[in-house]
Structure to design on (351 residues):
């Protein structure tokens, strides 16, 4: 499936962006249950106001340090937490940042995916941030609007089967509950970010089946909602799976699914995968870990802990020549998050 010709436009940013600049820094960072002080949450990490405020401060400090133009952040609870981080960034003098939030459909965790950006997203179909879920769903506050395909949203719910621990066949249906789509025009390039938080636990049979079904929905979103609108896709976030084509620091664990390969090869009508993993531009395999599972919960890294690469930035292959650098920001501890930000620098002036 081809991508229509790109439309020239200019996106401005206070991060050195000018009409003549085409450099762009994109990042993703799972904030691990970002909640504003005083708000009710389904899964509580910090119960009391001082700890939640400290979490907001430290998340803002990470954003200040990695200095992205566009940041996708899974595991935010509400727009209140997003705006609280933006307010801290403005106090720091980073006044160009705006937060874009849409309520997800995960009634269990309450987690959403937000976008922090110095560049205003394009307005597409009357909105600047989108979620694609079936009309009938459990969502908070009425703030989210379901996007359907000409009245037919059956493709937004995918069946899957697996054999449970008791050896019984199980049939379920998956919805891509935690994601957001934002469209941008930067230096004449039309790019769309699909930020996702897929089902966790890459070692669990049921979770793997659900994540695979979520991936089928994501591929449809890329084709129907991104490529069909003339934008180049970038898929990023906490994908909760390993890329078999990119060695990571943990050489023991292997994927049990085709999730990453399916995402990268979202269009079977074209030859080869359409997306490339930015981690291939990280020359040191030892640096390729984005998640710290504190197995013994002692708050420190040790031999029993698990360090794997489950957060990814997948870029359209037409953007591969624009990649200048990719890295994972490891200068945080477990008080901030059990994930590390993934960062990619692009120079969109490169052909």
């Amino acid at each position: 499936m081809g991508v229509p010709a790109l439309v020239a436009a200019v996106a401005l940013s206070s991060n050195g962006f000018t009409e003549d600049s085409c450099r762009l820094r994109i990042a993703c960072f799972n904030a691990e249950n970002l909640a504003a002080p005083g708000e009710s949450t389904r899964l509580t990490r910090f119960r009391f106001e001082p700890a939640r405020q400290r979490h907001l401060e430290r998340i803002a400090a990470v954003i200040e340090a990695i200095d992205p133009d566009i940041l996708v952040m899974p595991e935010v609870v509400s727009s209140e937490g997003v705006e609280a981080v933006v307010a801290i960034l403005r106090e720091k003098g980073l006044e160009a940042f705006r937060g874009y939030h849409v309520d997800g459909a995960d009634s269990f965790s309450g987690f959403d995916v937000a976008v922090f950006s110095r560049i205003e997203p394009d307005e597409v179909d009357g909105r600047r941030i989108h979620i694609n879920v079936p009309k009938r769903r459990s969502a908070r506050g009425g703030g989210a609007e379901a996007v359907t395909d000409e009245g037919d949203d059956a493709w937004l719910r995918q069946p899957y089967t697996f054999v449970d621990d008791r050896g019984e066949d199980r049939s379920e249906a998956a919805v891509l509950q935690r994601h957001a789509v934002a469209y941008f025009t930067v230096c004449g390039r039309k790019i769309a970010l699909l930020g996702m938080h897929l089902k966790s636990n890459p070692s669990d049979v049921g979770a793997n089946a659900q994540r695979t079904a979520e991936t089928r929905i994501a591929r449809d979103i890329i084709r129907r909602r991104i490529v069909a609108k003339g934008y180049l896709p970038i898929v990023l976030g906490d994908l909760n799976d390993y890329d078999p084509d990119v060695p990571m620091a943990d050489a023991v664990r292997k994927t049990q699914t085709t999730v990453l390969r399916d995402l990268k090869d979202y269009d079977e009508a074209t030859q080869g995968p359409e997306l490339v993993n930015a981690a291939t531009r990280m020359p040191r395999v030892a640096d390729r870990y984005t998640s710290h599972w504190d197995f013994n919960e002692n708050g420190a890294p040790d031999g029993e802990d698990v360090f794997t690469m489950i957060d990814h930035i997948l870029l359209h292959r037409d953007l591969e020549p624009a990649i200048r650098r990719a890295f994972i920001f490891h200068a945080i501890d477990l008080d901030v998050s059990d994930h590390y930000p993934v960062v990619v620098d692009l120079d969109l002036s490169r052909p």
